[in-house]
Design goal:
This protein is mainly alpha-helical and 377 residues long. It has 2 domains: 209 residues, no CATH class; 75 residues, no CATH class. 61% of the residues lie in helices and 0% in strands. Helix 4 runs antiparallel to helix 7 and helix 14 packs antiparallel against helix 15. The longest helix is centred in the C-terminal third of the chain and has 25 residues. The radius of gyration is 22 Å and the shape is globular.
Length: 377
Amino acid sequence: MGQREMGPNYIALAIPLLLLFIFIEMALAARRGVRNYRFADAIADLGCGVTQRVLLLLFEATLLLSYVMIYESARLYDLSSRPVAAFVIAFVGADFLYYCWHRASHRVNFLWAAHVVHHQSEDFNLAVALRQGVLTPITAAPFVLPLALIGVPPLVYVMAESMNTLYQFWIHTELVGRLGPLEYVFNTPSHHRVHHGRNSEYLDRNYAGVFIIWDRLFGTYVPEREKPDYGTTQPLRSFNAVWAQVQPLIALGRLSREAPRWRDRLEVWLRPPGHRFDWQPAEPAFDAKYDVILSPRIRRYVVVNFAGAVIATFCLTLWSGSLPWPLLLVGIGLVLLTVLTTGGLMEKRKWSRPVEAMRLGVVATVLGVMVAKLSAM
């Protein structure tokens, strides 16, 4: 097991299958006459997922190492000899702890700044499932440590956590209606559509991962009564996936700096999202969805280059444990630069074309060096 490879990477292995399901959903939606995908929004969703996956390569092993250390030095029980019981405890326990983290992430500003990335899209489809925040694995890490204390082996935990994450992929769709008796126990697309709605009655509801029973038990469940209006109460209004990751933290930091007292500055980070301070300036209201008009040429260019970033992300995630650090860092940097310039080109930012020209030059240089090394072998 390599230094950066602590177990099988189920998420990496699932990437091609997840993308296939997205294309299938697009085809089914078009056949039914449902317009649930917009080009720039979908690219931004996938860009957020790509950004999280490549940056996670830098600290994922450290997060898991903290789990391993507690498991090895402070566990209360030894479940390694009871694999079935260990997996059941891990799967149910991980889902309950996910509910706790998810609910806290909607009620505490600094946690919300990490999680809000997932809610920024004003559409709802399978691509939104991949729209994830870079910092959410860090904010979620302390919440899963009770499993290490109970004695769930690390690899069992990784398997249960991965299954929990993959389950939540399919519930991000408008094409599946209510599912009868399953609605009472499991989180379903209907339940999760409510969670992504910014309708007043839907805000901060249905936090479940796999089992909706947690919401029913703790009073956070609301059924789907009307079509949700997706997104956040203060829209991002950008399709740049890199900006999507940093904007919430910048906005929260700016609000904290504007606070009149030190106590208020700390309170900004701990208050629930949407809390209005007396000294806080009014924020603009937006009704229409943010969108951009792209020429077919720009669309083709974005698709080709973004496809390269996705392929590179898959390769880096799958083989990160065996790659030299310099090569890994170069790969991560190029992926992030591609995501950045893709967003800039779609929004017609002035800086995007010169930065894109620089990116192409770097890619050509890296490929030239790699070909020269392979030729010399």
